[in-house]
């Protein structure tokens, strides 16, 4: 059974952060993958999550849009507790449909792109706004084409994903998430599956997005990107955030020995 | 020595030398042997008067044979349609994490795969012996099983329910062949489980589902012959009725076989194009035979005009 999160009275004061995690815990069987994560992400902020393999970065990201449920702790996105609806002093667990509805505010980009191979690029972009948000087709089409233009792939609207390079596919995946006009974007190692010469194009798109004011939570091994684009960097190790602070400081002058070792190893 | 080590310029090679193609002697030899055997068999079959080719010709388009063929096609289409729809339901149930739902589907599949379809057909046909009156638990509403379960209904139930068991395993394999990342991406975009299944998973699963479904359809076409035992007038039964009258057993069995062969061939072509449809989005689809023929024709005409 999922532990029901309690309400914090502080939650109702001041401006709400876009994401707030308090002591978030998550286990797979006997393995506790998240061992009490505390993290706040303000609206418009870009936060990079770095850390060794298996430290729980992807799991945390998946908890934020409820692809995984948390076992304990509290997790807010915007005004709402992930997975629950507040009615007075009671928290009601959301139905599947409501969970889906909430996800429409959160875009997610995966390591392996996960484009739908049986649909053209344009169909990939238009699917969710039309079927989930029930938006007008022509309105969505115009928005999708504009987004393809923005990621430099206007010419590929009618191509099938498998005919594109990895870098192009990932840019389409970003455009697909943006077509939903999300308030928050999650990236899970968006450049890890790419050939080195294709990484730059994808990072450029992400940088452009960050500068446009999008709130972003990015799991990445691109330390240079974290330093230059992120506002803050959080270092994960063994299911905990060992260190979190301004990007330049964490990357160039880490306080913790573990962070220093990790950064030395990935450079 | 030094000239040998120099790399050959390909363009140069083409202008300097005449290219001698490989001869493929073995391939030619095999082709000749097969052709000779074919001629011998054809000669034998056509000249043996007991095959009764004239009788075959006389009955091939006989009205009752054509009606039988119609029934066979009807049974094939209806049973495949019901079987496939039920199979999708069973496959989704099998993949459910609810043990009761999952278990029910498992028991269904085990039961219908574990007993011969001929036995199942006879069971449905004789259902009236088991439940002479079919009531719905509502007083006053009941049906006489003997009039309700016609041979045709027994045939449809027997074949479709059995087919669902086999098809469900094919559908399940298809669903499992689609990467998890696809469902993740669909969920992240806010699609519900049902939408994800319909729009994302099943269309991709089709690539795995269609080829064995083609085989199942062809198998079903032939399995419909079994329902002749419960006197449904399909293709085989219609032939049997005729040869019971005129004793031309072999010619009428040939008539039935030719029709089965013809329909199977048509189904094969249909399957080819359906497979191509669901393979869209893949690189390098090979051209269809018709496209190849066109290219060939174009090549010949351009060559002859030159
Ligand atoms: N569905 C699952 N079932 C069981 N264990 C899981 C599952 N998903 C993740 N894990 C385990 O949880 C741990 C954390 O995984 P996670 O994917 O969050 O790590 P990560 O920090 O993203 O690592 P990487 O950099 O390799 O992507 C790993 O040990 C992993 O094996
Ligand atoms: Mg990961």
UniProtKB/TrEMBL annotation, chain B:
Keyword Transmembrane helix listed: yes
Pfam families (UniProt xref): BPD_transp_1
Keyword NADP: no
Keywords, in A-Z order: Amino-acid transport, Cell membrane, Membrane, Transmembrane, Transmembrane helix, Transport
Gene Ontology biological process: amino acid transport
InterPro entries: AA_ABC_transptr_permease_3TM (IPR010065), ArtM/GltK/GlnP/TcyL/YhdX-like (IPR043429), MetI-like (IPR000515), MetI-like_sf (IPR035906)
Gene Ontology molecular function: transmembrane transporter activity
Gene Ontology CC terms: ATP-binding cassette (ABC) transporter complex
Domain of life of the source: Bacteria
Domain ABC transmembrane type-1: 69-271
Membrane topology, as annotated: Multi-pass membrane protein
Residues in coiled coil: none
Intracellular or extracellular location(s): Cell membrane
Transmembrane segments: 28-46, 66-93, 105-125, 145-162, 225-244, 250-274
NCBIfam families associated with the record: HEQRo_perm_3TM
Family per record: Belongs to the binding-protein-dependent transport system permease family.
Name of the protein in question: Amino acid ABC transporter permease
Organism listed in the record: Nocardioides jejuensis
């Amino acid at each position: 059974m999922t532990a029901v999160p309690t309400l914090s009275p502080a939650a109702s004061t001041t401006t709400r952060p876009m994401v707030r995690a308090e002591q978030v815990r998550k286990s797979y069987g006997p393995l506790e993958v998240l061992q009490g994560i505390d993290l706040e992400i303000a609206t418009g902020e870009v936060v990079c999550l770095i850390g060794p393999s298996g430290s729980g970065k992807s799991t945390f990201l998946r908890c934020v849009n409820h692809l995984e449920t948390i076992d304990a702790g509290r997790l807010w996105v915007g005004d709402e507790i992930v997975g629950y609806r507040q009615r007075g002093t009671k928290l009601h667990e959301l139905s599947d449909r409501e969970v889906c509805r909430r996800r429409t505010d959160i875009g997610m980009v995966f390591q392996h792109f996960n484009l739908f191979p049986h649909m053209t690029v344009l169909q990939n972009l238009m699917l969710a706004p039309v079927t989930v948000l029930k938006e007008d087709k022509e309105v969505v089409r115009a928005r999708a084409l504009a987004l393809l233009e923005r990621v430099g792939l206007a010419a590929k609207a009618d191509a099938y994903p498998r005919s594109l390079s990895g870098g192009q596919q990932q840019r389409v995946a970003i455009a697909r998430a943006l077509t939903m006009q999300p308030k928050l974007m999650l990236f899970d190692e968006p450049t890890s599956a790419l050939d080195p010469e294709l990484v730059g194009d994808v990072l450029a798109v992400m940088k452009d997005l960050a500068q446009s004011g999008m709130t972003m939570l990015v799991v990445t091994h691109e330390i240079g990107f974290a330093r230059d684009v992120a506002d803050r960097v959080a270092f994960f190790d063994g299911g905990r955030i060992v260190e979190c602070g301004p990007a330049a400081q964490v990357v160039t002058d880490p306080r913790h020995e573990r962070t220093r070792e990790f950064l030395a190893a990935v450079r | 020595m030094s000239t040998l080590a120099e790399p050959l310029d390909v363009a140069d090679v083409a202008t300097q030398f005449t290219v001698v193609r490989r001869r493929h002697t073995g391939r030619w030899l095999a082709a000749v042997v097969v052709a000779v055997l074919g001629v011998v068999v054809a000669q034998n079959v056509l000249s043996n008067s007991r095959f009764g080719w004239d009788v075959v010709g006389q009955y091939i388009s006989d009205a009752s044979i054509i009606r039988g063929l119609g029934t066979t096609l009807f049974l094939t289409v209806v049973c495949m349609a019901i079987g496939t729809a039920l199979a999708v339901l069973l496959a989704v149930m099998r993949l459910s994490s609810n043990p009761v739902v999952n278990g029910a589907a498992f028991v269904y599949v085990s039961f219908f795969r574990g007993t011969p379809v001929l036995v199942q057909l006879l069971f449905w046909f004789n259902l009236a012996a088991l439940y002479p009156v079919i009531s719905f638990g509502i007083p006053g509403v009941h049906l006489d099983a003997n009039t309700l379960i016609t041979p045709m209904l027994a045939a449809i139930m027997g074949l479709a329910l059995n087919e669902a068991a086999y098809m469900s395993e094919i559908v399940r394999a298809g669903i499992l062949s689609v990467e998890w990342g696809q469902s993740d991406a669909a969920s992240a975009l806010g699609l519900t489980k049902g939408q994800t299944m319909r729009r994302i998973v099943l269309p991709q699963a089709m690539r795995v589902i269609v080829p064995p479904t083609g085989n199942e359809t062809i198998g079903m076409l032939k399995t419909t012959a079994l329902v002749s035992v419960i006197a449904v007038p399909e293709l085989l039964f219609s032939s049997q009725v005729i040869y019971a009258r005129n004793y031309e057993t072999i010619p009428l069995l040939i008539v039935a076989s030719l029709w089965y062969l013809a329909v199977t061939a048509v189904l094969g072509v249909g399957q080819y194009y359906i497979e191509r449809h669901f393979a869209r989005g893949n690189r390098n689809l090979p051209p269809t035979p018709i496209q190849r023929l066109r290219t060939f024709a174009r090549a010949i005409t351009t060559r002859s005009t030159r």
